[in-house]
């Protein structure tokens, strides 16, 4: 079933591309379904659940890890001890103001 793509006009070529991408998507879904069925069959045969193997939370999504909690503060505002900063992310205004006033990072460290 060779297709001579050189003989296709612009619209025919776009139509072929769309059909090929749709078929590619269908094949990926079929493959995923088959793998899922194999995994469920294996879990059932072994007498274990998905949660026992992978935990209740499932996979980590979006690259973010769950349950790690917050980071301990590294710096404290001498003018207002309730204001702290972990040293991650954008510097808070009070931190920059203290540096401009002549303080050093080690002076603000907890």
TrEMBL record:
InterPro entries: H-NS_C_dom, H-NS_C_dom_sf. GO terms for cellular component: cytosol; nucleoid; protein-DNA complex. Residues 62-93 are annotated as: Disordered. Its main location: cytoplasm. Signal peptide: none annotated. The keyword DNA-binding applies. SUPFAM superfamilies: H-NS histone-like proteins (SSF81273). GO terms for molecular function: bent DNA binding; DNA-binding transcription repressor activity; minor groove of adenine-thymine-rich DNA binding; transcription cis-regulatory region binding. It holds the Pfam family Histone_HNS. Residues 62-110 form the DNA-binding protein H-NS-like C-terminal domain. It is found in: Cytoplasm, Nucleoid. Keywords: Cytoplasm, DNA-binding. Belongs to the histone-like protein H-NS family. This is H-NS histone family protein. It comes from Dyella monticola. The lineage of its organism: Bacteria, Pseudomonadati, Pseudomonadota, Gammaproteobacteria, Lysobacterales.
């Amino acid at each position: 079933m060779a297709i001579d793509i050189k003989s296709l006009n612009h619209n025919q070529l776009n139509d072929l591309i769309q059909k090929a991408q749709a078929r590619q998507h269908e094949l990926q879904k079929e493959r995923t379904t088959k793998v899922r069925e194999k995994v469920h069959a294996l879990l059932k045969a072994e007498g274990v659940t998905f949660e026992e193997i992978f935990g209740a939370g499932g996979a980590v999504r979006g690259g973010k890890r769950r349950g790690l909690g917050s980071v301990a503060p590294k710096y404290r505002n001498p003018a207002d001890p309730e204001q702290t900063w972990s040293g991650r992310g954008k510097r808070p205004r009070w931190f920059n103001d203290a540096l401009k006033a002549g303080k050093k990072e080690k002076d603000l460290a907890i």
